[in-house]
Amino acid sequence: MNNIFNPLHMEEILKRIDKLSPESKAQWGKMAVAQMLAHCSAFQDIAMGNSFPKRGWLGIMVGRFAKPIFYNDKPVPHNMSTIPTILITDEKEFKTEKEILKQKIITFQKNGPEKCTTHPHAFFGKFTSEQWGKGIYKHLDHHLRQFGV
After folding, report:
1. What is the pLDDT of residue 79?
2. How would DSSP label each residue in 93-146?
3. What is the Cα–Cα distance from 97 to 102, expressed in whole angstroms?
4. What is the pLDDT of residues 12-29, one digit of tens each?
5. Could you report how far apart the first and last alpha carbons of the chain are, in Å?
6. Which long-range contacts (CB under 8 A, 24 or more apart) does 117-122 make?
7. DSSP 27-50
8. pLDDT-based confidence at 42, cuts 50/70/90?
9. pTM, whole model, 2 decimals?
10. Considering all CA atoms of the chain, what is the largest pairwise distance in Å, rounded to the nearest integer?
11. CA 19, 23, 27, 33: dihedral to nearest 10 degrees?
12. 20 to 30 A from 35, CA-CA: which of 19, 49, 89, 148?
């Protein structure tokens, strides 16, 4: 399983982000490309411990059973629901969002597993740093495939 803490996997993700353009179209879902970049950036903030969405009752009840979806080898299902606080619906500027996301990925990777948040994910609950590394890669891969890169 790929892991964003592996420098080669991080570089692959960054190269794929660079293949995006403001004209990139989603193959599924409702987000425009700049909104997707902002969404991924907001998700990075959670993993980095800069944002702390509250756990909802559904996550508390079933999140731990669904938790492997985040870090196993199977692709994330299309149109899976997301944490409401990182659902991006307003217009975003592509170039700005692209650079912000790339810098957050680089910082996350550079900080290493030791700096991952220990705060529970809003739906799945607590993750180890290895699970965060795999899950971040998987989340980014999912959205980059959504936009054909």
Report:
1. 84
2. -HHHHHHHHHHHHHHHHHH-GGGS--SPBTTTB---HHHHHHHHHHHHHHHHHH
3. 9
4. 999 999 999 999 999 999
5. 19
6. 117/46, 117/47, 117/48, 117/49, 118/49, 119/46, 119/49, 119/52, 120/55, 121/46, 121/59, 121/63, 121/70, 122/46, 122/53, 122/54, 122/55, 122/56, 122/59, 122/83, 122/85
7. SSSS--HHHHHHHHHHHHHHHTTS
8. very high
9. 0.94
10. 40
11. 80
12. 49
Tokens of 40: 């991924």
Q: Show Cβ contacts of residue 19 under 8 Å, excluding neighbours closer than 6 positions.
A: 149
CA distance 12 to 7: 9
The structure tokens 């756990």 sit at 55
* Closest to 54 measured CA to CA, from 86, 79, 77: 86
pLDDT of residue 95: 98
Residue with tokens 């529970």: 120
Residue type, 1: M
Tokens of 98: 């692209």
Per this entry, what is the length of the chain?
Answer: 149
